[in-house]
Write a structure and sequence with these properties.
Oligomer: single chain
Structural class: mainly alpha
Length: about 230
Amino acid sequence: MASPPLLHGFNPTLLLVLNLLGTFVFGLSGGMAGVRAQLDLFGAVVLAVVVGIAGGTIRDLLIGTPPATFRDWRYLAVAGGAGLVTSLAHPAINRLQRPIDVLDAAGLALFCVTGAATALAHRLGVVDSVILGAITGIGGGMLRDILVGEIPAVLRGGLYAIPALVGAGIVVVAYHAGDRTIVFPILGALACFLMRMAGLRYGIGLPRAADVALTRIPRLPGRPRAKR
């Protein structure tokens, strides 16, 4: 059953279009990761499909509804198409600067907004909607990195989860403030994308866990060995 259209100006058709666009963009990032990992054509397409549908599937399972992927054939078709596109056109896509990062940031921005909107449509609370939006955004990228044997970007340097939380937060706060138009979802997606790209461009991010110790214990000199 489709989500109730509670967001004026953010109707179910537009939500579907944005979800499919996010699926395609994340599918492209998964396909590119597969090409770089030297996977065969089948492997690259499978990775694109898994990455493209992961965020939305996690979102729907947490909400308690059947995943849209299994209710609408277009999600699998779009994600699979993205995998074929990257396999056939990866030389052109590689001409972009940091193509996987750009595609990942775009998917993150789209999915954090649609995830939050879907949560609101199912009458979830403020905190729940923000968190669900962020989880929807980061789910595909995390799974992509794990499947190609990398530490997920959300756990490495650079802003990742924070932009998703900000983008989802803008949508949720505006909704509860009475603004039901498409303006703030667009602003939320734009803010998320720009924050993510700025973090990558300028190396902005949280400090490493190893660098935040409150005290440093000096290393004790070793005991001199007794002469025998």
